[in-house]
Amino acid sequence: MFCVHSLKGPLSISFKTVPEQFGELIERDGIVPAPYVAKHHWVLVENPDALKKKEWEYFINQSYTLVFDKLPKKIKNDL
Fold first, then answer.
1. Residue 7: per-residue pLDDT
2. Which has the closest alpha carbon to 14: 52, 33, 24?
3. pLDDT score, position 32
4. Within 13 Å of residue 42, how many CA atoms lie on the same side as its CB?
5. CATH code for the domain of 41
6. In the chain, pLDDT over 90 holds for what percent of residues?
7. How far is CA 26 from each of CA 20, 32, 46, rounded to the nearest angstrom?
8. In this structure, are residues 11 and 25 in contact, taking their beta carbons and an 8 Å threshold?
9. How many distinct structural domains can be found in the chain?
10. What is the pLDDT of residues 21-46, one digit of tens each?
11. Residue 67's closest CA among 14, 7, 6?
12. What is the per-residue pLDDT across 60-74, written as a single tens digit (0 to 9) for each?
């Protein structure tokens, strides 16, 4: 899992980031530490307008890479 969004209620999206960007992102309006997983540098975007389209693309791709890189070799090969 590298990106999660809500199915009910207002749109909110969580993704993993690197420690250096975590602090910068949670300072923005509409972005908070993700409940239960903030210690692993996950953020919760409560307002989708808090990020521009290019930033969304960057952060979601980065999140995928961060999670993929931690997978066991066998699972990486299966993917």
1. 86
2. 33
3. 98
4. 19
5. 3.90.1150.30
6. 82
7. 11, 5, 11
8. no
9. 1
10. 999 999 999 999 999 999 999 999 99
11. 14
12. 999 999 999 999 999
Domain extent at residue 29? 3-78
Q: Is 49 exposed, middle or buried (0-12, 13-18, 19+ CB in 10 A)?
A: exposed
The end-to-end CA distance of the chain, in Å, is 13
Spatial distance between the Cα atoms of 74 and 41, rounded to a whole number of angstroms:
25
Strand stretches in 19-75, DSSP E: 31-33, 42-45
Token pair 């090969």 is found at 77
CA 51 to chain centre: 12
Distance CA 57, CA 73 (A): 26
